[in-house]
Amino acid sequence: MNQYYGGGVGMLMQLEPIFAAVESLPILPRREVLLMTPQGQTINQSLLRELTTDYDQLVIICGSYEGVDERILHLVTREVSLGDFVLTGGEIPALALINGVVRLLPGTVGKVESLKAESFEAGLLDYPQHTRPAEFRGWKVPDVLLSGNHAEIARWRHKQQIQRTRDRRPDLYENWLREYGGEELEKL
Questions:
Q1: Which fold has domain 117-187?
Q2: How far apart are CA 100 and CA 103, in angstroms?
Q3: pLDDT in tens, 13-56
Q4: pTM of the model
Q5: What's the first-to-final CA gap in the chain, in angstroms?
Q6: CA distance linking residue 60 with residue 55, whole number of Å
Q7: Which CATH number is correct for 15-102, 3.30.565.10, 3.20.20.450, 3.40.1280.10, 3.20.20.60?
């Protein structure tokens, strides 16, 4: 840690230890060196898919305090952020990124089909999920889920995804309408 040129409040991570650490690693053919920073590209499902499929090696650099010396960008191929806020370090965003990437790797999730129907995969949030008992404290599982009619269940789930996305994340809903040619809920 060092105070930085030009003055200012806080501490900045020095270059030498970070360069030494990254340069000590073997280099695989498809390598991405990521810097966790609030100034980077926000982590989303499509980025996680890209990192899972397009790269053999991910190197993650986590800054602390005020961050890292700007010259670190000579090592970095992409800056990544957890969102529009600042934490004391990049470790928590790095853990979120690692978890999101690892769960997409073959063999991590028991049923690959479960990855296809969850939030963000088709531009929508996930539908509501229910477990036993069928009634708890007066709250009942929707009748359609008890019906055994798989076509009706699929239709109900799709409507729930649309409604939930429209109500909770209007930004995603508008994007879904544009990108996926989704139908307005009222038309279904």
A1: Trp Operon Repressor; Chain A (1.10.1270)
A2: 6
A3: 899 999 999 999 999 999 999 999 999 999 999 999 999 999 99
A4: 0.82
A5: 58
A6: 13
A7: 3.40.1280.10
